[in-house]
Amino acid sequence: MDNAFNFQLSEDKILSKLAIDIGITSFIGLYNYIHKLPYGRNSNRYDLELVIKEKKGTCSSKHAYLKQVAIENGLEQLSLWIGIYKMNTKNTKSINSVLEKYKLDYIPESHCYLKHNNKRYDITFPESTSLKFEDSLLTEEEIIPKQVGTYKVAMHQEYLKTWIEASNIPYSFQEIWTIREDCILALQNKKA
To answer: Measured between alpha carbons, how far is 103 from 121 in angstroms, rounded to an integer?
Structure first.
């Protein structure tokens, strides 16, 4: 992460104060702390505080938390993005058995990450800063933190519906969504 983000967190902002309460006072310190948290879904995808309180997060919650802290501290140049990429065995090894079972080469998956000066940052998994998804990006869009919930899901589902029809995929939308959930479970269990 760029040194431009090495600023002290404001004590009078909600998410910043949550970090300060556990001993983290700088944005870089918070970035590194959140990167080390395990991958896992929070109990409420709309409550960003749960990243710190439950000590875990997904691509959506981890990156939205950091973007919201940047907003709280007046740093607008760090942006939050959703990308749809071809999730396959090349960029996501742990889903191999799921894709093989359903005879699919890939599934379009939504992924959140940060950008600064057109450089992508991904801290989804503690053991990796890899941008394996970058070469498989199909589309991307800048969003605000509150869009990681309903909007992200709706955007992803619409993309899948179009893909199923355009690619003559032999599964219904609901079947693809279930297969995708199996992939996410494999990710949670194997951590990438």
So the answer is: 31
Tokens 């070469």: give the residue: 135
Question: What pTM was estimated for this model as a whole?
Answer: 0.90
pLDDT at 4: 66
| Sign of the dihedral defined by the CA atoms of residues 175, 152, 16, 18, in that order | negative
**What is the rounded CA–CA span in Å between residue 136 and residue 162?**
18
Percent over 70 (pLDDT), the chain: 96
Measured at the CA of 50, the angle between CA 112 and CA 81, to 5 degrees, comes to 15
Q: What share of the chain is helix, strand, coil (3-state, %, to 5)?
A: 45, 15, 35
Q: Which of 55, 72, 90, 95 is nearest to 144 (CA)?
A: 72
pLDDT digits 0-9 by tens, 127-149: 877 788 889 999 999 999 999 98
